[in-house]
Structure formats: C-alpha cells, structure tokens
User: Fold these one by one.
Assistant:
Number 1:
Amino acid sequence: MTPEPWNAPYATDPVEADVSLPGSKSMTNRALVLGALAQGRSRLQRPLRSRDTTLMVAALRALGARIDDTRVDDSDDETWTVDGADWTTGPTALEVGNAGTVLRFVPPLAGLASGRVGFDGDPAARKRPVGPLLGALRDLGVDIEDGGRGALPFTVVGAGGVRGGEVSLDASLSSQLVSAPLLAGAAYERGVVLRHIGERPVPNTPHLAMTVAMLRDRGVQAETDGRTWAVRPGPISAVDGMIEPDLSSAAPFLAAAVVTKGLVRVANWPERTTQPGGLLPGLLEQFGAWVRRDGDDMVISGPATVTGADLDLRDAGELTPVLAAIAAVADSPSRLLGIEYLRGHETDRLAALARELSALGAVVTELEDGLQIRPKRLHGGVFATYDDHRLAMAGAVVGLVVPGIRLDDVATTGKTFPGFATMWTEAVTGRKAVH
C-alpha cells in the first residue's frame, strides 16, 4: 500500500529547539556483534531501537546469541543485554532488510556456525556492494554459495570455525567491507590481516576508527597503518557501555538552524567521537553557521545568509543528503566531493539528490565523485525518498524554507530514527504534533 505523501512543516519563524537524539546505529550494531562474540554478558545502555538494529538482533539470535532487548518503557535509558553466541548447528535464513551493517557484518560470523545460513534482503539491498567481502571471506576459509553474483541472495555454509589469515580486497566502495572481517577476526584461528588494494582510499574512515576502538575496548589486539588492518586471535571481553547519540541524525536538526536563521541545541554531544557525524559542526561553519559548545551540548546558530561551500565529504558521506539540501537554498554554488561511493548506498544517492533537487528548481549536476549545486528559486512538489532515510531528512530540511514540499514516504526514516516525523514537527514548529 502506497503511503500518503507527508506535508513537510514550513518554518514561518527561525527554528529554536533543544534536541535529544536516539543512539548511534553504527555503535549499536557493532556492540551487538561484539557482544555475540564475547565471553560473558555485555550491557548496552541507550542503544538505538530501529529497523536496522532490530534486524541485527534477529540475525544474531538466529545464529545463537541471547539478546534481551525488552522495552520496559519509552525511556531512552533502556539497557540491552547480550550473551555470547552458542553458535547454531542447523540451517537458518536471515533477513538483512536494507541494512548495510547486517548485510556485511553478519556473514563473517555465520562461518562460525555449523550449518547453512541463508542471506537475503530488500530489492535495494541486492544492488549494494558485497562482492569484495564475499571474495575476502572465501580467502579466509569461509564457504559461500552465491551463484557467482557477488550479491544477495547468498548462503554461508558454516563449518563451526574459520581459518582466517591474510587477505586483500578493494574497499573503496564502503568502509564496512573492512570493518566486517575485523569485527569477527579475533574469533578466527589465525586472526585477520587485511590490506586495501583499491586505487581510491577507503571512505568514511571515522567508522574504521570506531571499529578499531571498540575492538580494543574489549581487549582485542587491533592495529592499522591506514591501509592495512590486523586483528590478532584471542578472547573478546564482555563490556558494559553507553551508546553515543547518533550524530549523523543530528544533521537535519542542526541544518534547521542554518537555513532558518535559528538556534538548535543538541544534548550530550561527545567531546571526542569516532562518528562521521562529529564532523558536522565544522562542515556547517563553512555554510556560515556559528558553532559553540555549551557544557555537554552542541549549539548551532544560523547565519543571516547561507553561503555556498566546497566540501570534501569522503569521510562523512552519510551527511551528504542534508548538506545538499542546505546547498540548494544557499546564495551561491556548492560542490560536494569525494562521494562517488554513495552510488552504492541505500539508493544511488547522487542520482537521487540531483533528480529531486532539480525537480524543485535547483540546478544540480552529477560529477564523477560528487555533486555541483547551483541554487535557484525553489518551488513546492513531491520529494521522492527512494526508501532512503537520509533522503527523507534532506527533503524535510528543504521543506522548512520552501512551502508545499511533500515527502512520498517519511516512514522510511524508521531505518535509523523511529518517530522522526513527530520529533521533527515538534522541534521545528514548537508545537506538539497531531497524532
């Protein structure tokens, strides 16, 4: 059933809002994987409960992990417990949805099981890059049947353990292709030494730093020189940890301050982080925003005029849709570069942004590795989201300053931000949303 288009709120005044974000998807799913591999019980405080994380929970349970994610109330203070997996010995089938972390992080674990583990997902997930990972896993000793497609659907034939060792792959399409074997590597007989052999660097290096840091926090010996990563075999300790707020999900709220001359405060912004979203304040300054910390909060004030910016987003590709929305309402052209790999995300984000922003009146040109955006007077219309949570957030930002913007499927934000539409409406209007 096709959903009714959602009328994006139009801001008649500068947006002033205090925002508390849900937990980081990237950290939640990494913590779940490491908890399944650990000896003992791990506790995750303030994890993200969303489609991507519930798919990860279901996949790990199917492989034998014991995870209690029972919701006691609607508080953000909930805690999930994860007990190390008693790996399954029978066939099972896993659904990855359109979650890149489930698609890539779970197959390396499936080799530790003793049975056939099938993987499939949404139609869009069948187009997402996974072939280099499957090839690397084969080199490490994992038996995989994929009919030569290098894509979903495929089956991992678990043998109760994985040899591991040294492997090379081209990870220029996604940092997850590196993180996936590293997360499981300590459980392999020889560990993992992985070399990136692509001509372009691995994108989103903050996520790789996150993977290495979380491994080290659990007692794993993990090293890198930026092109080679090594994880030694050994036990993974269970830990209790707080999941940081999802800083990439702060992007539309902070953008609201930028495009409306407003002021938005985001609570509990970490002083140091491995999240790509931690780059947001500096990127927004280049559009003219004022940035300051106030205790534990990040505060963004919008400029009198939004200026265009040339940005290298190789390490922050997931911020591109919202930054493109800001660029489309600036007073001068922008270029967003280093993001050719976004063509293989939830959708081809470069083509989608060019198409949707151009349809509203902007002049957007696809470049080999990004977008050139020339602002023009924009008009209302339906903004297609392509089942992509970040596209929906971008459309919501445009709707603040362009009346008559409607999103064809705002519910797709449930992938990483359940309740986004309600929280957005309340934040940008200052009024409780009508349910």
Note: The chain is about 30% helix and 20% strand.
Number 2:
Amino acid sequence: MSSIREPKLFALLAEFDEAEKIIEAAKLARQAGFEKMHAYTPFAIEELSEILQTKRRNWIPAIVLAGGIFGGLTGFFLQYYAAVISYPQNIGGRPPNSWEVFIPITFELTILGGAIIGALGLLILSGLPQLYHPVFAAPEFRRATQDAFFLSIESKDPKFDETETHDFLETLEPVDIIGVLDRRTGSER
C-alpha cells in the first residue's frame, strides 16, 4: 500500500515586471550567497545568464570527441572486416588492407558519430525532455512566456531558509512571491 507524501516546498518564486529588476535581483541574490537559482523570462537576457551561471564542467566536447572516435573506428574496422577478413578480393593488384581507400568512409562516420553522440549527450546532460517541473504548477508562471520575469531560489540551496529567503526576496521589491510545491508523489526532494 503506497502512501502519498505531503507536497514539500520546492522553491520560492519572485515575480518581476521588468528585465532590469530581475537582473538586479539576481545580482543581489548571488551576492547574498544563493547558488540554486533559476530565471524564467519571455526573452533571452545575456547578463542574467552570466549572473546565474554555475561553475560546472562542460562535458560536451569530451562526449563529442568520444562519439567521433567511436564512429571513426567503427567505420574503419567495418571496412577492414569486409575487405580483408570476410570477403577479400585482389582487384588491380592492391593488397586487401588498402587503408587509403577506407579514409572517406572513416571520415564521414567520425563526423556522424560525433554529431549524433554529441546531440544525445546534450539532451541527457540538459535533462531534456523535461515534461514536468514544479514551477509549471504555479498559476502565475504561464506569464513567463509573455510579460513576466521570474527568479526562483530552490529549497535545495544550502543557504535556503523559508522565512529568511522570503524576507530577502521581499527586499528586492517583486510584484509577488510564490511558494512552489513539489506535488510529485513519491518525491524525495
């Protein structure tokens, strides 16, 4: 028999009506020591992405390199197996292992392997497709694609305390502060 857990607070969401206000709010929140912050805006704001940027290692180049090496080796050894082991033929006096002939396909599969594995790696590391996120349940959040700017501070943040964080957000003079609950059943968050 499964029990349904009470929804826990996922984040506090501060709503702003101007881009300049959310940029300033994000700067002040970063200076206050908050780390787990996200911004939701109707258009891209370059300054905001720089402020909210977390220090994480970028694994995409290594994943693309690994995919390219895998694709290139696969292409080369597939041709080698076909020409030398499975069905060797003497055409024009060339040796069966004429590696120069294998270069175009090897190159093409290197590019293809890097592109496919890189795209899949990007999706996986980005957590996409994300069909549900707790902020989607906030009724005001639908305006994030129209005319409102939202800054969320997650409850997983080491500095997060519900009362103190709420008081801090009030000092930023938002239009509204919304508590976002994580309504997923069985969630350990």
Note: The first helix runs from residue 19 to 31.
Number 3:
Amino acid sequence: MSQPDVPGWEQISAAGTDPELLSAVVHRLARPGTGAASLLGAALERDRHATPGEAVRAIAAATQPDVTDAADLRRAWGRRGVRVALPGDPAYPERLLASWPDASLPLILAFRGDLRRLDRERTVAIVGARRATGYGKGIAAWLAEACSDAGVHVVSGGAVGIDATAHQAAIDGGTSVVLGCGHGVDYPRQHAQPRGLFGRVLEAGGALISEQLPNKPPRPGVVRARNRIVAALADAVVVVEGTTRSGSLLTASAAADRGIQVLAVPGDVKRPGSGAPHKLLAEGAAPCTSPDDLIEALGASHHRPVREAEPAAPTALPSGVHELLARRWPRPIRVDELSSVLDVPAATLLASITRARVAGEIVEGADGIRLARAPSG
C-alpha cells in the first residue's frame, strides 16, 4: 500500500483511532469480494487469543500495496461529518466487544453523533414491522416515550414503521439509529432529508451508526445484518409487530444468543403482524403489555426527576374528541367512527383534526387517528 494520506485519515478517525491503521483496514475492505467477517475470521484463525487491537493490526499488516485507492471512501465519510473507529479503540462501544472473539463483530464502526451514551446508559431496542398498524405504532411510541422518560436510551434500525415511531417518541431523551446502509446513501429517503428524522436524532444528542463503507446500498442482506448490532447495543429487546418472516426475529435471535432479555407485545391473533411477537412468546419471550413490563426488565427507575410542572398546552381538538382519543390510546380510530360515536358531522371534525395534526398533537394513518403522545394520568 502506498503511504496513506495521514492528515486526510485523521479527519475521519475517531478519538484514539490510529489513522494509518484505519487507512489500511479500509483499503482491505474496499477490495472487491472482501468482507469484514472473512478478514476477522482469518485473523482469529491465526490467533484465537488475539485481542481486538491485535486482530485489527494483523488485518492491516496483510494489506497489499496499491490494491485500491480508498481516498474516495474517506472523502465520502468526510463530507458527512462521519468518524470511524476500529475494535478496541476508545470510541468503539464496549457493548459490541462483549462477544469477542466473534468474527461477526463490526470491523469498522462509522458514526455521526455521540456514541458514549451507549455504554453509559441503559439501552433498549424497540423493533418491529415496516408496514405497522396504527395500533402497533401507538404501542411503540408508548414504550419508547416511557423508556426515554426513565432515562433509558432507545436504539433501533431507523426503518419506516415501528423503528421510526420509536425513534421519534424517544427523541427528546436521545435515541440512536443503526443504519442498514452506508452513511453516503440517503435511506430511507424521508428520514435522511435535512429536516428529517436522522437530522433530529443528531440534534438531540443521539447517533447514526453503520458498519458499512459509505456508499453501500441497503440491500436485503445488509439491512438484515445490522439487526445483530441493534441487539448487541441493548440491555433488552422488545418486538412490537412483525410477520413470521420479519427481520425483528433476527434481532430477537441475536439478543437471545447473547443472553439479552427479549420481550414481545401480544397482538391480534387474526393479524399477520402478530406473527413475530406470538412466535417469540411461544418460545419463552416475556410478554410486554405496558411500559412497566419493559422498565422492570431493564431494572430502571420509572421516572427521571420531574421538571417543574408547566401548564397543559391548549388542544386544537373539540370538546370530547381528546377525551375519546385518550380512552382509545394507543388504538387509532377512523374519523367516520369518531363522528358516529360523538354524533358530530365528520366535516365539522376535519378542520380541527387538521390543525391538531399540523401541531403534532395527533398522527394519522390508514387505520385512523390517535394522539401522538401517551395521555397523562
């Protein structure tokens, strides 16, 4: 390998990461057909008792001269403000190293934001279906908000559906996303936009994490592989919704393999989206029927010190609508059903519902509307 551009690699190296070592490892990974697991596996086959740092140095030492120019990869990370750490480096989460020696360990960890919270705080993974129901999203929001209020860091995969709902509900307390692609790929597109979910995660002190080179697209194998990282970063995993082929089962399986507690939210036996949690419950997962179940499993205190009470925000909803939505929480209700129950014309409700949606008081899906946050009391 030609002499690395050390100053350039220093710009993307995490604190305590050797830029020359990082350059050599990325050059190896950039070779066509080379995978992180194969590199780590070969290093551990040579020395099963190697420390993470020793294995990384062995991989770097085997890099052939001028195999590829990794400068484009380095620049792609640099444009996004990404830092990269290697196993054994100070910035690399201790949680991930708990399974060492394991060839499936991420060989590189590219991140934006603050990773330190992942080792300092209790962490829960809330995962589930992309095609989630309004009820499933409501449950995910309920669990994530309560965990965040209890000082528990929420981690998930950043996908649409249950993942995104959990991130959004926990954003005030901090949440981290494990990407199913490289940092240079805007996926899911709506979350990667400047004012999208991922930007808000970073603004709130969370992190975006990827084990992939920057331009790696979200192919199915790549997306599913990130589930093991989601599991490894958590003290407990809860599956909210998903079919019997859901990737959330991979997250649960990876957690069980590590001795991490798995919980599942019971669902409607007639809905395909209940397949994954019901399968886990049959296999011995703990039922999660409220935030209390999850917070108890995490061993967390139920609430953070409460700030001085603020006056309740005015509601944009007509009298009776908020109370009904609170009683139905977290189940959604269709506007025509709401109209029938309250004996109020749907047209009369629509303007106030629109104002409440714009104000963030309610969310609306194909199966109706619900309060965006769990009702107090």
Note: Residues 252 and 265 are 13 Å apart (CA to CA).
